[in-house]
Amino acid sequence: MTLLNQVKTLFQRETVFCVSLVLAVLSALAVRPDAAYLSYPDYRTLALLFCLMLIVAGFRSLGVFERLGRALLRRAGSLRELSIALVLLCFFCSMVITNDVTLITFVPFTLLVFRMIRREGRVLTLVVLETIAANLGSMATPIGNPQNLYLYSAAGLTMAQFARAVLPYAGLSLVLLLAVLLLQRDEPLGEERPEEEGEAAPLSALAPYLLLLALCLLVVFRVVGFVPVLLCVAAVVLAVNRRLFRSVDYFLLLTFLCFFIFIGNLKRIPALNDLLLSLVGGHELLAGILASQVISNVPAAILLSGFTQNFAALLTAVNLGGLGTLVASLASLITFKFYAAQYPGRRGAFLRSFTLWNAAFLLLLTAAALLLG
Predict the structure, then answer these.
(1) I need a labelling partner for 316 at 20 to 30 A (CA). Which of 20, 188, 236, 307 fits?
(2) Is residue 208 within 8 Å of 58, Cβ to Cβ?
(3) pLDDT digits (tens, 9 = 90+) for 11-25
(4) Rounded to whole angstroms, how far apart are CA atoms 280 and 285?
(5) Is residue 164 a contact partner of residue 121, using CB atoms and an 8 Å limit?
């Protein structure tokens, strides 16, 4: 493969990273690299992201989430119950394992189950609702998605401030999702059910990851420093299963780093800094939602955080902004890729359904945010 083809492939696979890299390089032409660059990154956020990705990869390697899904689904008595179980799995699991990992785990599982029970005609709406559930459920905790982790850490929000910014919308989202699911046509299920696969992982295998997760939560809530925990997580994973290091999304970490450089440089250019302060200040909700539609909500959170002090409003905005376009939350692309691979002739149908449902949820939740704000 030629260098040009390699670059093209990288851009297709990691578009946001490539854009962030170009922005960082261009900004470095305006602000020459110096010692101040070292103060740009939020090292605590980067360390926590790295640790949480390793820990979640450890749980996935033990099949924890798939077993949870199968256990719940074997108890479903109808198509409606099955759909509710799957959507609730995505909603609540995303609070701990992030929205993208939730979708990587449960969307393929959903496609498999609906093919098994011969209800493939009903699966499109369901995977779209699962995607919405993962994106909205993840807003409820500081570790549910990268933008929450970053804003909670960098802004120094208290749990009370965080809860006021997101929990009303997480609660409303859950009510809306259940209402949609209860209005769906119900059908009895056939005899096919997902079977258990092998023996469950012993507690001794789970224990290291549970302890590491507890340590990370202590860092999130500012009880302990991130450096000792980072070293501890790396050492334990190296001893238990060093292959997990391959599961880390290093491009996401590099994307954060590039945006930190870009934003740090923009703030050192007085004219641009003043312009962005005037555009974002007082308009955090709409600025965050609109920016997310174009560059996705994680970069939007990093970018706009440099030009406002109202971090609670920005937190609400970038979480709601994950709805809307397919790129508003990059986790949504995961569902699209899995569905398109299974049903290549139905990409257009997916995009129509996805856009319709996302627009409806975004309009309702934005209206609620404007009223509550």
Answers:
(1) 20
(2) yes
(3) 777 777 888 899 899
(4) 9
(5) no
> Can you tell me the distance from the alpha carbon of 61 to that of 352, in angstroms, rounded to the nearest whole number?
34
The residues with which 188 forms a beta bridge, in sequence order, are 78
In angstroms, the CA 303 to CA 264 distance is 10
Give residue for tokens 């780093």: 257
Enumerate residues 6+ apart whose C-beta is below 8 A from 121.
none
Output the six-digit token pair for 364: 């309702």
Largest separation between any pair of C-alpha atoms in the chain: 67
The per-residue pLDDT for range 200-258, each reduced to its tens digit, is 567 678 899 999 999 998 988 888 999 999 999 999 999 999 999 998 889 888 888 99
d(CA 273, CA 110): 46
Amino acid at site 285: L
Are 138 and 102 in contact, with CB atoms under 8 Å apart?
Answer: yes
Pairs from 302-306 (Cβ < 8 Å, separation ≥ 24): 302/147, 302/150, 302/256, 302/259, 302/260, 302/263, 303/259, 303/262, 303/263, 304/280, 305/150, 305/151, 305/154, 305/155, 305/263, 306/263, 306/264, 306/266, 306/267, 306/276
The whole-angstrom separation of Cα 62 and Cα 168 is 34
* Cα separation of the two ends of the chain: 53
Per-residue pLDDT reduced to its tens digit, 106-126: 888 888 888 878 888 889 999
* DSSP assignment letter at 327: T
Share of the chain above pLDDT 70, in %: 95
- Please tell me the distance from the alpha carbon of residue 284 to that of residue 318, in angstroms, as a whole number: 9
Look at the chain and count its residues: 373
Least Cα distance to 45 among 346, 268, 302 occurs for: 302
Question: C-alpha angle 355/361/367, rounded to 5°?
Answer: 125
DSSP-based three-state secondary structure for 222: coil
Helix axis angle for 250-266 and 146-154, nearest 10°, is 40
Q: Does the structure show a pLDDT above 90 at 127? A: yes
Helix (H) or strand (E) segment spanning residue 266: helix 250-266
pTM confidence score: 0.83
Cβ atoms of residues 86 and 316 within 8 Å: no
